[in-house]
Design goal:
mainly alpha
Length: 208
């Protein structure tokens, strides 16, 4: 019986705390169980900020930076000039990995396969791919050890090894399954660099 009265007292106290102070005014900041990000430590547009010397919250872009999705201006000869910041701006093999409706095999003429290009691919692969696919592309990335997700694709599987370069580039561009597209975060040249490095990893895994 004593447990009944104890539970009853807890329930009554909870109801009093929940409903008893409704409409009351306080001079202090009220406690919020779920603030829902109503107040954030961030700079808002057209608002002052004491953090900067001039007191202005709005800042100019860092010199030389280009926002993602920025469309390069047309050249005098027509067309969009190539740059390291290209994010799939054309419909040719270099930008799509396709010849018409078919995946292309081999690398586009714009790509120069050398040691520097493979090193760039290794760096980009470790940043963008290895967390899920693993540094050796065996599908055992660090994410698989901490998250309850379906198995990540083993990129050294014979099925993936048989894929042409254009198909791997296309998959990276548009995403597949739980993997989202990388066409807005990894530029065209770096995607081809990742393809080149992956092909090197695949050959190394099958070498005798």
């Amino acid at each position: 019986m004593r447990w009944f009265f104890l539970v009853l007292a807890i329930v009554i106290l909870t109801l009093m705390l929940g409903y008893g102070v409704r409409g009351a005014k306080f001079s202090g900041t009220p406690f919020e169980l779920f603030p829902d990000m109503d107040r954030q430590f961030k700079l808002k547009y057209q608002k002052p900020s004491p953090f900067f010397a001039n007191g202005q919250g709005a800042r100019k872009p860092v010199e030389g930076t280009v926002p993602i999705g920025f469309s390069m201006p047309l050249s005098k000869k027509g067309g969009i000039p190539r740059s390291p910041l290209d994010f799939s701006v054309g419909n040719d093999y270099y930008n799509t990995g396709l010849f018409g409706d078919f995946y292309g095999k081999g690398f586009p003429v714009e790509v120069k396969l050398d040691a520097a290009f493979l090193e760039r691919g290794r760096q980009r692969f470790r940043i963008n791919c290895s967390p899920c696919h693993g540094e050796s592309a065996n599908g055992q990335g660090i994410v698989s050890k901490y998250w309850m997700i379906p198995p990540t694709a083993n990129l050294r599987d014979p099925r993936v090894i048989a894929m042409p370069e254009g198909q791997i580039f296309w998959t990276m561009t548009h995403g597949k399954g739980l993997m989202g597209p990388y066409n807005g975060t990894v530029n065209v040249r770096d995607r081809w660099a990742i393809v080149a490095y992956l092909k090197a990893l695949q050959k190394a895994s099958t070498a005798k």
